[in-house]
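Hey L., structure's done. Input below.
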Amino acid sequence: MTQQLTPIRWIELGLPHPIDPERLIFLQADGPFALRRWYRHPVGEGEYHLDLDCRTEEGGLTGCLHCSHPELYTRKRFPRKLGFSIVAIAAVLAPFTPYYSSLAVAGLLDFVIYRSAPDEVVCYVCGSVHRGFREEPRHPLFDRTIAERLTHGDKAVMGSPMRPGGTAGAPDPEH
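Output:
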C-alpha cells in the first residue's frame, strides 16, 4: 500500500545575489517540480542554474539546488529581529512590572513564535535557503564541525569528514 502524500502547494528558493552574497534573491514556484533548470536575474545581472537532480521523487532534497553540495542543515524560519525586539521591550519594561513579569511574558512569547515557525533547509556552502520542500529526507540541525571543515578545510580544528550521501537522513549533531 503506497502512502498518499499531500500535494506541495508552493516552494521558495533563496539564492545568493551575484554581486552581494549577503543578500538573497527569492524564487517562488508552485512546487518542487515546477522549477526550471535556469532563471535569469531580475535586473539582468546573470543567470541562476539549478541542479534539479538534487530533488527526490517525493519532492525532498538530497543536496542544494543552487550549488549541488550534499550537506544541508535545518533551521527555524524565526524572525530574529522580532525576537530581539520583544526581549528589548521586555527588558525596558521590567523595572515597571511586578516581579519583572515582562521578562517571563517575553520568554513565553518568543517560545510560542519559535515553535510555530516553519522549518527551512540551508546550504552550508552557498547559503541558499530552501522552503516548502518535503521533510524527507530530513537534514539535521546546524553542525559546527561541518561548517568548520567547509570553511577552513585541512586547517579545521574540529572538522568532521563528510558522510556518504551528505546530510540527507543524518542524525542531529550530539553537541
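Helices lie at 80-93, 101-116, 144-152. The chain has a mean pLDDT of 88.

-- N.
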